[in-house]
Write a structure and sequence with these properties.
This protein is α/β, with parallel strands linked by helices and 308 residues long. The chain has two helices and 25 strands.
């Protein structure tokens, strides 16, 4: 059978035209699908009551329970509870990330368990604290852990703390960001904040407490690049094998004021420190220059003496 080349060519052109048309129709649809797949930012618009928590649908602007595809942000003046108040059970936030803004609060309610954010927690001027319900009939300190990918500190006014019934508040994640952070305790039993990791954090840190005390510990070595101020009744714990490094003038406590350059066992620095780990205070460049000049002067005098 002999094929007509003109018919074959026309069929090929028709197929190509159909493919182009299909592509033109599909492209906007694919773009729409890609757009809808992008994370939406959902804002808190209702206060959590005692029976609600961070996964309560009606307290978010879309009236839906948080999902991993979206990011979530609190609103000024509102309280968000990290888990059910009544049971103190562990809870997992459904969203992809959470930001706590100025004048808002994330209150963790888990007791002796680990609650989780499967993403980053950002504090941008707000407060995150452990405040479990009181034990009955005899109040005791109640511990809790919050697991996150990163704890990002942004801006000013951010706070991380332990409230009246809290004991040890562990952040299982990496502290990072450039914002300033106040760590506090108003615990009836004395509070402890333990942060397992720290990387790329450049903000200033301030420790403050009521008379029952605050202990702060880091689970890794780190070189701080900003001020670290330890207030009355607050303690920096450096455990055996750990080293924390500061620039001269940046580490300040209520006994020593600015800690002088040198290498110390933490507990040797006084009541604001505990542990057998190492604290290194690096001299300022100007101090190093003066030391160098002093060394040259001594060497010069020795040379002159040897020629007499």
């Amino acid at each position: 059978m002999i094929r007509n080349p003109f018919i074959t060519k026309r069929k090929t052109m028709t197929r190509n035209a159909l493919l182009i048309t299909a592509t033109l129709i599909a492209a906007p649809l694919l773009g729409l699908a890609a757009t809808s797949a992008q994370a939406a930012l959902i804002t808190q618009d209702g206060d959590n009551s005692a029976s609600e928590d961070w996964n309560t649908a009606v307290d978010w602007s879309n009236n839906l329970a948080p999902i991993a595809a979206n990011d979530y942000i609190t609103a000024s003046g509102l309280l968000l509870r990290g888990g059910p108040s009544t049971s103190g059970a562990a809870s997992t936030f459904g969203g992809g990330s959470l930001e706590v803004v100025s004048n808002s609060r994330l209150l963790m309610k888990n007791i002796n368990t680990t609650s989780t954010i499967n993403g980053n927690l950002t504090i941008s001027g707000g407060t995150v604290d452990l405040g479990p319900n009181a034990a009955s009939p005899t109040p005791i300190a109640r511990n809790g852990t919050l697991k996150v990918n990163n704890l990002i500190i942004s801006g000013t006014g951010s706070q991380l703390g332990v409230s009246p019934q809290g004991g040890v508040f562990t952040i299982d994640g990496t502290l990072t960001g450039s914002g300033d952070l106040t760590m506090f305790s108003v615990s009836d039993f004395g509070g402890t904040i333990s942060i397992t990791g720290i990387s790329g954090y450049t903000g200033a840190i301030n420790l403050t407490s009521n008379t029952n005390g605050l202990v702060v510990a880091f689970g890794t070595d780190y070189t701080f690049s900003n001020t670290f101020t330890i207030g009355t009744d607050s303690v920096l714990s450096v455990t055996s094998g750990r080293t924390l490094t500061f620039n001269e003038g940046d580490l300040v406590d209520t006994v020593n004021g600015p800690v002088a350059a040198g290498t110390y066992t933490a507990s040797s620095l006084g009541v604001n420190y505990t542990g057998s780990g190492t604290i290194i205070v690096v001299p300022e460049p100007a101090s190093l220059v003066l030391l160098g000049l002093g060394g040259l002067l001594i060497a010069s005098r020795k040379r002159k003496t040897s020629h007499v």
